[in-house]
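ARCHIVE CARD
Drawer: 12
Card no.: 0347
Subject: one protein chain, sequence and derived structure
Cross-reference: see card 0346
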Amino acid sequence: MTAKDASKRARDVCERAAVMPVLVVEDAANAKPLAEALVAGGLSALEVTLRTPAALDVIKEMSEISGGCVGAGTVLTLSDVRAAKAAGANFAVSPGATDALIAACEDEGLPLIAGAATASEAMRLLERGYDMLKFFPAEASGGAPALKSLGGPLPQASFCPTGGVSLKNAADYLSLPNVVCVGGSWVAPEGLVKAGDWAGIEALARDAAALN
């Protein structure tokens, strides 16, 4: 997979909805009902972070949901890339980028949304052919004002800001011309997931999907 192809596919994923749920799922038994609730609410691109022992099983279960597009988050290494692809991930998300990680995703045919928090990091990814990026950690890196500032000299770069993004500030990011979507965990709070309150999660997803 070329960088151009990867970026196009990554952009297609980000354009599915205004919000990409960032999911930390402890129990694979919750995977399908959680994904079904989010997709029913209008959020079809789902990032499952590789932060729990169940994550790969969760990706496998969610990959079977009609209308959904599941990806692996916190992808850091070649083994992460291979495991995510084998589990059924359609894309990968990383907090940053290394040459080895980029090469692994290209070799495995897994579109990468790589993280960048500074102009230099974004420029390096643009130089490699990647123009659909993750702005992380968004709030700690200056929030929407910082991302707006990057848009002046780097208009060719588009972002999915993640990290500290919430219902309260999502609209600030989404109003920027260089933001395609935002990533956030608020649409699937731990309490609702543990309680199996899928209707509550679907309602949160609908509110998020209505953002612009």
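Annotation on reverse: The first strand starts at residue 19 and ends at 23. DSSP finds ten helices and eight strands in the chain.
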